[in-house]
## 1
Amino acid sequence: MKICISVIGLEKWFGGDFAGLAELVQAADRMGVDQISAVDHLVLGEDHSAYPYGPFPGTVETPWIEPFVQLATFASVTQRIRLATGIVIAPLRPAPLLAKQIATLDLLSHGRTEIGLGVGWHKAEYDACGVPWDSRFEVLEEQVEACKALWSGAPAAYRGKHISFDGLHAIPLPPRKASTPVWFGIAPLPRNIERIARLGDGWLPMERDPAKLAGPIEKLRHAFAAAGRDPATLQVRASYEIVRGETRRPDLEATLAATPDYAAAGVTTMRIEPSVFCRRREDFELFLERVLAVRDKA
């Protein structure tokens, strides 16, 4: 089991100064946290009623830092922690730009990039970027194929319904070229399971109940095998289901107690949000010590 730390909301410990997050990421890197994740919204409209996972965890005033810029900052102050997203809304970026952003981050971090891609839920972002909402899954799939073509070498060519090019040079290439890990944050529907098995290295489920994760993970393993890939290489990063005590405060020990259940379901990395459990900066490293102790026993 590996541990991923989310940086969501931690800027509040620094009076809203996002530059302070570098200090936290350095501590996480030093203490042995496996992965750090950033999130993505380019813009937000005022209607969040389409958010499919309960109340939207934010407002129009919530700051959303561009994830590639943020992760590049983290790369410059760390040595080993892996840099991830959960998720980048891929269709909002042209495929060559997405390929360049991922390749650059992977180059600057010496191969520590594990990018999660998805399509999001907010149609207003697509409208603002002039990207057709109804084609978002097709565009996502072609983007990953196009990125892999650009990362494989130059000149690169790709021809799809939405993305086409020939004779392009996207230099520098990422250090791992077309094998740069790509994780998908999409629902485990049959078509998406096939997409992940054919194009991806991991899955980022929104489901937090470990009992409900085992079935889709097993289907993904079968899909990997059907695609001629080793099912043991499938990576799955899930988020802890937060357990609250009698006072409704988050209970860290009760939350972490489910770690063996996630491992049994096939989850390989657990994501946790320090902002949920820590009231102040001084609590952060004690929090990490406890989380990492549980990881090491899993």
## 2
Amino acid sequence: MTDILVDGLAFAEGPRWRDGRLYFSDVPAGKVHTVDMDGRVETVAEIDGGPSGLGWLSDGTLLIARGTPAAIVRADGSVYADLSEVATFPCNDMIVWNDRVFVGTCDIAGIPAPADTQLIEVDPDGKVHVVDGEMHFPNGPVVTPDGSTLIVAETFGQGLKAFDVSGDGPARNKRQWATVDGSVPDGICLDAEGAVWYADAIGQSVVRVREGGDVVERIATEQPCFACTLGGPDMTTLFVITGAFVAPEENLRNRPGRIERYQVEVPGTGSP
């Protein structure tokens, strides 16, 4: 069973553990919060346009993926990278790794039959690359601890893709990392054994899968779940974002969003 760390959110996204706190976005509310292990919540940014994915530059600057106009912004709202002329749809989930930004765009309005969208990379020098323009709703990027591989969930592709990210140049060599037939993998995180936890939005569960698609663990949730990350003092707390996928105004009115937590055996790697 999970226990509820935070409730009364509209629709949370992008959980990231850092410096003893969990950071997350409440998308319709336009806010980025932190919460500690005792459930104390603090607002650290207010972003118009739908904050989602979170990450940090090496100098400690918090970056936030803004949905519309598509951009990567800082916590004060200033634009770090304008993606509005590149992104065909709103920005969603993101990771920052060695000052490289990987962010997906998603056709949220097109659900349940969204158009293919993009995985975008922003280099430390500000150059923007469309890594892949035919992603099936990219979500939950992580990078392996050796910095060689980017893994991205494809929510409407029933699987996870991998890209090579070591060396010079943008991510390349797209390939299937795991197929998860019958699942809708949303946000993901990586553990120390190289397995991925993914939030299965339609399965109302969070699932641990190995490369190739071998499912080794499944935890049921009371509500649909949309993202997860590992953190806590020993990195063995699995934080799970749950809620309801309905119109933003309904989420703001009813506030079904929660952060639940579950203790697991294998710790996380810090990505994300």
## 3
Amino acid sequence: MLEKKTGRIIQAIAGFYYCQTKEGAVFECRARGAFRNEEVTPLAGDLAVFETDGQSGVVTQVLKRKNAFTRPPLANLDQLFLVAAAKSPAPNLLVLDKLVTVCEYKGIEPVLIITKTDLADGGALQEIYEGAGFCVFPLSNRAPAHLDEIRAMLSGKISAFAGNTGVGKSTLLNNLFPGLSLQTADISQKLGRGRHTTRQVTLYPAGEGGFVADTPGFGTMDLSQYEIIRKEALAECFREFRPYLDRCRFTGCSHTAEKGCAVREACRSGRISRTRYENYCALYENARQIKEWEIAKKRPAGRR
């Protein structure tokens, strides 16, 4: 007799969906055939209803998502920890703001972690993003602080870490999760990782019902490459702009060149970071050049 259960998909790969219940049991499932006709693709991070005989099962329903991505194939991400180094390599703030913008657009909370503050002062970077309303953690490799605060933020949420090679992301993750390599091996064995050669997203428990998404190698998530944000929606993705958006002289103000623009005035007076504003203008110009057919060509991840 089949039993109906609800679980979190902690890995979706090669037509198999590994669903973990709140009790911690993991079931290897297939998806019902109707999903293909409905253009629904279950993703890691999805809450799913499945029927099981106690060993394997069949996913019968994917519950409503908060957000979803095609690359990495991940759903319901709550927060993204953006790891940038104070030095070696120097942070690329335009790339950082692209990722922050996509997070805001998707309803994901961006959190900035500045590593290598023992090599260089990350105070200017911290000031920019704290001034914009984001949580920022400066970390020194010699005496890492804030680890308990970061761990607490993972509780009950689906999180991921993104950062370029050399920023100290692996060191950070090892400090946060000393047993992660053992946990990874254990989960891989449960999921039959050796049977599948394609590397996909896997969710690992992070305490109190939270998960950390292992995008391949905990690598950079270039979310901006896969998301098109219309120029009209861009200003709302800069949270420090929001108090000024309805104060501009002209309706439909682009906040790039118009007279009587409250956002530009806030930048001139120092209430908005000039770096953030200049990056907004660069992203706006990019968005302005996007054609309607390019937007139409982009399909929502997983169609759910």
## 4
Amino acid sequence: MHASRRAPRVLAAFVAGVIVVSGSIFGGSAATAVPTTSPKPTIMAALGDSITQAIQTCSSLTTCAANSWSTGTSTTVNSHATRLRALTPTQPLTTYNNAVSGATSNTLATQVTKAVNQGAQYVTIEIGANDACTRTVAGMTPTATYKANIDAALAALSANSSKREIFVASVPNLLRMYELNRGSSTARFTWSILGLCQSLLANPSSTSATDTARRAAVQTRVNEYNAVLQASCAATVNCRFDGGAIANTVFTRTHISTRDYFHPSLSGQALIANVTWPTTQWVS
């Protein structure tokens, strides 16, 4: 994601379904066998934004795909790709990280085309934080538009292969990210200087009714996006939604990068992989 379309934006942290801040932050474990209905893929593609590119986990303002929760190779993160390889070690797995920092649902179609052309048999999608993180609340992607973009992407993935498995991750709770670091002067300065997610993070110290309502409106829109992801995935063949695993995870400050106080840290990427993996086709 980008800050106000300029600098990397979201905690693309972690926010689908209606967001409820509850649950264990380290639930689930890797599967020991591949379900017969979902043969292990040999080609995998990740779609999304800077969250899936693991921005801020190597150095400031740069992407670091090796640490991605989806296709990363870092043993610390233990990504979906790493866990898939562990299921059948003798079978090769080629991965592509097509996610783009700053991507919104409106640009997802381009990534879908790449995944189809790459012959991906397993595709992960994490998108929506940038749709909510804009300069103003009025600039957020309307829920109906977001739904149309998601439906089009899922339809394109399904139309090209009845055997392609799709995994849709929920959008992180952006309001929780703000609340965890709003008391930090360093975080507030960083949000301001980078122009990060001003629809949510403008006037971060303010407790006025207007600013409180503005932040609530952003989270409400994220909740709506998550509801769209759940319903749209349910209507798509071979699509698995994470059940709100990311959205409902009570992440802590350690899971947020101290480079921008917005994106997932290395441990945050590991957390995303850990809470989403048990909800995939390969486990449940």
